[in-house]
Write a structure and sequence with these properties.
Layout lengths: L1 H18 L10 H15 L5 H12 L6 H11 L4 H17 L5 E6 L15 H5 L5 E5 L2 E2 L6 H8 L7 E8 L2 E8 L1 E4 L8 H19 L1 H4 L16
Antiparallel strand pairs: 1-6, 2-3, 2-4, 4-5
Helix pairs in contact: 2-3, 5-8
Length: 236
């Protein structure tokens, strides 16, 4: 009987070994993997290949507000950082921080631009991540144009969409048409009145700038004040 019990005990130990999660799947290993991914993307910002730099920017703009601590530690270990990294870091940090903010939604879809050029994207919303400087939107969903669409055309194209849906946005990027998959944000209820556009953007940028000045600027000994947004109209 004792011999049988001992055999059962050994079998149970073996089974426990079979079902023990590997290091790669264990919760303790995930932060290490995340750190490595963010480190790689940050390093890629100085890559000689523009496509690699573009993808690194896109990936970093998609990290969470909680990941900013990881990014901060990577920067500390990488000082002095490359100029190609420094030039995009401010806007990147502000966007990531603001993307993690909560707000009262209006229930309508929103991509976060107030004029059609990519330089007029609101930090914290999907267009800021998806578009690059110089991009011109020429199509939304099934609608497309031979030239850049205007605000009213984009509003019409988004009228039947909802927050959380994916919409194909076609852009002219350096003379090449590219189709981008936008996951639509919810429009803030504060923007139900277009007159609140400029105060709303200024207030958001101020909060993001305060975070940058307190957490990241001291690392780089650089302080900056972004220009106020243009009082252009907003759509989506």
């Amino acid at each position: 009987m004792a011999h049988l019990a001992r055999r059962i005990f050994l079998v149970l130990i073996c089974l426990a070994g079979v079902f023990t999660p590997s290091r790669a799947d264990s919760p303790a290993s995930k932060p290490v993997d995340r750190h490595a991914a963010i480190q790689q993307w940050f390093d890629d910002l100085k890559n000689e290949d523009p496509a690699v730099r573009s993808d690194a920017r896109f990936q970093l703009l998609g990290i969470s507000r909680e990941d900013l601590g990881v990014l901060k530690s990577i920067i500390k270990q990488s000082l002095p950082i490359h100029p190609a990294q420094a030039i995009v870091l401010h806007d990147m940090v502000v966007h990531i921080y603001l993307a993690g903010e909560t707000y009262e939604p209006a229930g309508t879809a929103f991509i976060g631009i107030y004029q059609m050029e990519a330089t007029n994207c609101i930090p914290g919303f999907v267009a800021f991540r998806m578009l690059e400087t110089g991009d011109m939107i020429v199509g939304v969903g099934e609608w497309s144009s031979a030239s850049a669409c205007d605000i009213s055309q984009m509003k019409s194209a988004l009228v039947n969409t909802h927050p959380g849906e994916n919409v194909r946005i076609t852009v002219n990027r350096r003379g090449e048409l590219k189709e981008l998959n936008f996951k639509l944000d919810a429009k803030p209820a504060a923007l139900s009145d277009d007159a609140q556009l400029v105060p709303y953007i200024n207030d958001r940028i101020k909060r993001g700038e305060t975070y940058w000045q307190e957490e990241f600027a001291p690392l780089l000994e650089m302080r900056s004040t972004p220009p106020p947004p243009s009082p252009g109209i907003i759509t989506g």
